[in-house]
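Worked example

This section walks through a single chain of length 575. The input is the sequence exactly as stored; nothing has been trimmed or padded.
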Amino acid sequence: MKIEPLGGGRFRVVSHYIKPLIALIRRLPCYQYKGGQEGVFEISTPDEARQAIKVFARSAKYGLVPRADLKDHIKMVLENARRHLDAIRSIALRHAEDGRALMAHQVDGITWLAMRRRGLLADEQGLGKTLQAIMAVPPKARCIVVCPAHLRDNWRREIARWRPELAPRTDILSYRGAVSAAPSITGPTVLILDEVHYCKNYKAKRTIAAKALADKVLNAGGRVYGLTGTPLLNRPPELFSVLSTIGLAWSTFDNWTTFASLFGRTVDMFTGATIWRGPTKRKLDEVHRRLSGAMIRREKRDVLDLPDKVRSFIPVSVDRAEIEYATKALGEFASMGDLRSADFFEISRIRKMIAMAKFPRLLEFVEDMEASGCRPVVMSAHKDPVKLLGERPGWVAITGETSMKDRDAIVDNFQRGHFRGLAATIKAAGTGLTLTSTDTMIFLDLLWTPGENEQAEDRIHRIGSRGAFYYYLVSDTTIDRLVADHLERKLGLVKRTITPTASVVSFDQEYEEIRKLYKAMRQEVRRVLSSGVLHECPACGTFLTWRTASDRSTRPGEKYARCDCGYFTWKDSAQ
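Given that input, the structure is written out below as tokens.
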């Protein structure tokens, strides 16, 4: 068993098939199995150095011990990381002199990304994930950004503002563009997958295309960063798909079976439906520990001095005939406590009908807001009430039919105070927009996915916010109650699983931790060697484990060591 350098930070590892050892080897950074007893791993960032050292500390007892030149390589990796961070600091200092200083949590996030080849930046909406990702790109690297189509102009503006020298080396694609025309990878490249929760379905074409592009970048020695404020939108498998897209699923959870066990996957014995109960209290700490190595998350309440969200629920009476129709249509499902057995299209039709039934009350509420001088944002899951509201004098609407150019113009004019109000569908305006010129948002109804509703809320609750007041119009119908119960259960799972990062270490702390880990690993290697478990080949320096001779050998039952270079010795002869 041996480890050989291949150049460029890559190493070849050869080992015997010992099941616990193979499990450890698969945890080496960027490990690729090459057939037989061989595999290749790579160390090019401080995070990968730490990961490899931890593996070698545990693999020593099986005979897999790194060569002395690994220490020199790790020193070089740390020095490169220091130079990278120094370049970032000089750029940040230049912006600070121009009056655009970075916030403390943004500096921490940039440092965290810069020390990794793969990472999920899951800060809450409004904390500047775009800025952090842009600043973490190495000075001479090429950058590929894959984002929702309506955010491409925003990325161009942010790059021009913070890293103008990066603009000529940056390609900005939509997820649809990544499917139809994936760019070729040449030289050092950083791939940024913005709103990476778009890759929640592992079967979707955009997920397959994004993952293929990420694999190409990683295989070429590049970096992949995923950005999202909602890594777990609705169901646990979506989190696994997101991590898999950026190459972190297996290193974080080992395999699908472990993930499913941690998140309480069960199968209904009567219907065969898959049920995700979420992590138990006993497993929750394990989930948080595993995610902490792959993801960093900060919440606004912890890093910004923003006003708290204030939510009010406004009861709305709708036409009795419509209530009776909706109640009758959903009566058979209400007793189940969920909507699993209901016809999706029938439920959607009823929800749209209830939304339109609440519209007259919405108009009254909006008129009261206007009379008090407020400029509200109104959100709905349906476009028909949004379009109607957008026809009011001084109002404007954003739906999925609004072009990118018109959307940007609407947002800019709303921020300047040119409109009395803005109506939008949650899908069309729930991500990427800043609407902090108002402090009021009204929800006519909600989407099924709690993460998307929260993202919509955060359009007015971010850096620059003056306040955040939310009003939810709730009817006394069965469907509204079922939706509220459904969202409450789902949101509880998300909040338990995706928690803020306790702290972010600086480069100096990371350097000191790696130094201590390396020292501990060498002590473990010396302990194993002194115990006589291993034998060093005098010809090539490979560490060998003692094997037991078979009954057909000349010395049955005795211990021997054999090396690939041809060296052979019996244990009693070597002592």
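What to look for: Residues 69-97 form the longest helix (29 residues).
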